[in-house]
Design a protein that fits this description.
20 strands, mainly beta, four-stranded antiparallel β-sheet, about 325 residues, about 10% helix, elongated, six-stranded mixed β-sheet
């Protein structure tokens, strides 16, 4: 005789055996993540060849999934909505008569939220249990619209969230001269891209002269019976967008020659090379402002090198000779 069993629950009922459904606590599951619904059961040995397991969805009399262990045909998907998302190779248990008892739903979305019922029967008895599952979809976008600094008459602030499921709770909170105000007057409409999701918004009219620069605005969105919650905030006045064009940085390789009096120059001069002192690197061509190659008149350069100002010792000798000549002239005149 088939012993009564139960699907996932957090409590026991009488002598029923307890089964588990692997879901995100508290009974909710994020869209896009694999979902496993496990249906455990107990049975008498004489019922082994009679077992028939079926899964139902949202109260439909037609099962979405059926498995008869004794037939060795494997599980069958009956509902078209589940055909592309159910993994029929998944095994929940090593025992032959229990290995395909679970639903393994790949990439679920909001369509898979609802009531799931598992029923196990034999020729003499049957038992069933059911559980609610929420597959929630976080908002794809949350936009918070503050005031513009150019506003000088009553206008509005708002919070918009798009592509969310199920219907969320939304709260818009703002301050007026440090006084906290709030609104939860939410408007709902189907998402234009996916009508199974919702777009929600809150809009509040305020006078810009009632607020100051330090006031804030925030929007909090929660999905009931799930752990999902998001909060965004900003200053009550929007920050001005920068109109300055971004800087364009160019990388330029600059040739840097050695400084005058460097070790390289000293070595060059001591070498006796005729090119020393030319003022140009010997490995580079000299060009004019039009980037035409020009030559260096080494004769003029050498001549310039020969013309050097007299040093101070020469100046002292010439002055002494001049004074001697003047003294000799004076002596002759006497």
């Amino acid at each position: 005789m088939l012993v009564q069993w139960v699907l996932f629950s957090t409590f026991c009922i009488g002598a029923k055996s307890v089964s588990t459904v692997t879901l995100a606590t508290p009974g909710a599951h994020a869209a896009g993540e694999e979902l496993i619904l496990d249906c455990d059961f107990e049975f008498e040995e004489q019922e082994a060849s009679q077992l028939d397991l079926k899964w139902y969805f949202n109260g439909s009399p037609v099962p979405i999934y059926q498995w008869v262990p004794a037939l060795d045909l494997g599980p069958q998907v009956i509902d078209p909505m589940f055909k592309d998302n159910l993994d029929l190779k998944y095994q929940a248990h090593s025992e032959k008569l229990k290995k395909h008892r679970a639903l393994h739903i790949m990439n679920p979305d909001e369509r898979f939220s609802g009531n799931y019922k598992c029923k196990v029967s034999s020729f003499v008895d049957e038992a069933s249990a059911e559980n609610e599952v929420i597959v929630y979809v976080p908002p794809s976008q949350v936009i918070l619209n503050p005031l513009r600094k150019t506003d000088n008459e009553p206008t509005n602030i708002s919070c918009h969230a798009s592509g969310i499921f199920p219907l969320p709770k939304v709260s818009l909170v703002w301050t007026e001269n440090s006084t906290i105000l709030t609104s939860d007057d939410v408007e709902y409409q189907p998402n234009p891209v996916n009508p199974g999701l919702f777009d929600v918004s809150i809009t509040v009219d305020i006078d810009p002269f009632d607020v100051v620069q330090q006031d804030m605005i925030s929007c909090e969105i929660t999905i009931p019976d799930t752990e999902f919650s998001v909060r965004v905030e900003t200053e009550i006045f929007e920050k001005p967008e920068s109109t300055q064009e971004p800087e364009v940085q160019l990388e330029i390789d600059v040739f840097s020659g050695s400084a005058s009096g460097s070790e390289e120059e000293d070595l060059c001069e001591s070498s006796g090379d005729a090119d020393c002192g030319s003022g140009y690197p010997t490995d580079y061509e000299v060009v004019d402002e039009n980037f035409s190659k020009v030559g260096v008149d080494r004769g003029m350069q050498e001549e310039a090198d020969l013309i050097e100002p007299s040093s101070s010792p020469h100046i002292c000798v010439n002055m002494v000779a001049l004074l001697y000549s003047l003294s000799y002239i004076l002596l002759l005149s006497i």
